[in-house]
Write a structure and sequence with these properties.
mainly alpha; Cytochrome Bc1 Complex, Chain D, domain 2; 2 domains; two-stranded antiparallel ribbon; 6 helices
Length: 161
């Protein structure tokens, strides 16, 4: 019986040693794997940026569609709230506002897309001599896409006085 108990003790010690050794091996492999991933993530080489060949899909850019300049005059003088004519000088609308830039001068040389961007995101570029936040930034919410297109067409066709 003593021999059986001695053998059981010897087996228990060996099994414990095997488990401990196996755990050390697993731990060492886990550490090696983490280090390998860390080294791969750091790159250590050239910096790669997306190219047209690697970008999937299209970048959506807000664009303005064709509009009706005559209808745009009504948006400029009445429909927008506050009306554009209350703040800007613009000869085609007989507008004499003084709060914002003179659009006959400020829009000269600008295309329809730029005009649209200035209406829907007026703080993206501030005309010299004026402060940020004066022009409401809600016209894209209060005006329909058609009204915006009409307004842009009116401004674009009549800019420059």
């Amino acid at each position: 019986m003593e021999q059986i108990l001695a053998a059981e003790g010897w087996l228990a010690r060996r099994a414990s040693g095997v488990q401990c050794g196996a755990m050390r091996i697993v731990l060492a492999l886990a550490v090696a794997l983490v280090l390998a991933f860390a080294a791969a993530a750091c790159g250590g080489g050239e910096e790669v940026s997306p190219t047209p060949e690697t970008v999937e899909g299209e970048v959506q850019e807000e664009t303005v569609g064709p509009g009706d300049a005559a209808a745009g005059k009504a948006v400029f003088t009445n429909d927008a709230s506050p009306p554009c004519a209350g703040c800007h000088v613009f000869a085609a609308a007989d507008a004499k506002g003084e709060t914002g830039p003179n659009l006959d001068e400020a829009l000269a040389g600008d295309d329809a897309q730029y005009i649209y961007e200035q209406i829907v995101n007026p703080n993206s570029e501030i005309t010299e001599g004026f402060q940020e936040g004066i022009m409401p930034d809600t016209y894209d919410e209060q005006l329909s896409e058609k009204q915006l297109a009409d307004l842009v067409a009116f401004l674009n066709e009549n800019k420059g006085g």
